[in-house]
User: Fold this.
Amino acid sequence: MPIKAAAIIGAGIAGLTAALALARHGIASDIFEQAEVLTEVGAGLQISPNASRILDTLGVLVKLRSVWLEPEEVRLVSGSALRPVASVPCGKFARERWGAPYGTAHRATLQKALLEAVNSNELCRLHLGRQIDIRNKRALEEMAGREFDLVIGADGVWSKAHAMVPGAPSPLFSGNIAWRFSIAEAAAPGILDKTSVTAFLGPSSHLVCYPIRENAAFNIVAIVSGSSANRDWGAAGSKTQREQMLRGFSGWNATILQMLEAQQQASFWPLYEMKDGRWHNGSDTILIGDAAHAMMPFAAQGAAMAIEDAFELAGLLSARSPAQAFELHEKHRAPRIARLRQRAAFNQFAYHARGPIRLARDLVLSLRPPQSLAADMDWIYGYRAIG
Assistant:
């Protein structure tokens, strides 16, 4: 029997993408979100070709092209000496090599584009301000006034849909803290590149910055080791936490330190990842995106994996029962997620290297041309989701 309707918990990037992907196959959905208004927290977002290709298929990329930036390259730079270490070309190169663009935008920009597409699709219904505390899909059916063939939990690390999946993954504090803030282009120091994504590297810390064209600003994410496992994402850090963050950048270039010291309103984001666990209950409920496999941001693929999850799950559900689709989805997706976790762990090791390891890193990278480094990303950026 073909699937007619799905309930989706969470109206973030994963949930909205899932609704559009299901609608593409004629499957209706109700999206339940506890927030009264969708105001995406966070700041910038890198949308790599493996994700932008899917957004294009869903008719969303066209809404981003007029406002996002396609960076010329992704640069690795010494955080102390400001010496270039390596770079991977993007822009036209990305379109030609990976068949889709690489862009940067504010998270709210992507969420708005997805939301507009959902609101204009008659197969998608969004329910805001719904307090979700459920143990089975019957509670969702009563709220929506119709039956569902399945439930998709797309509600992030602190997922309430976990209650419907015995043995679901549980969050684990990574030992890293992200400090997020933005700086207007007019007030930004000259060392920030308006055309590229730049990762400044240092021992036990790194800093990523890139332009957000629609805001005429730079998005900055500073990542350091930390001991706090507070769940209060997006809150302004305490004085002690700010001092801890600044100690993580001791010895860095003076301009970068001055920029960090001036940020009184930087948001405090403890970084969590998911332990291994089941992504579905074998019958009517499945987890996608961060709810299933939150990972460290060292490969900049969190949002892209949520988009891939949603798109590929919808394709499997278009011709199979939920139970069959769930098994195939996890079998297909788990190896890719595992490989990306390994890549993120390697990037953390490389970015935060010190002493002889740092010197060896810089030497090896300096000997490799940009095209060779780009080839290392083919399995990520060149991936063509099945949907």
Notes: The longest helix spans residues 322-351. The chain is about 35% helix and 25% strand. The chain has one domain: 5-170+274-381.
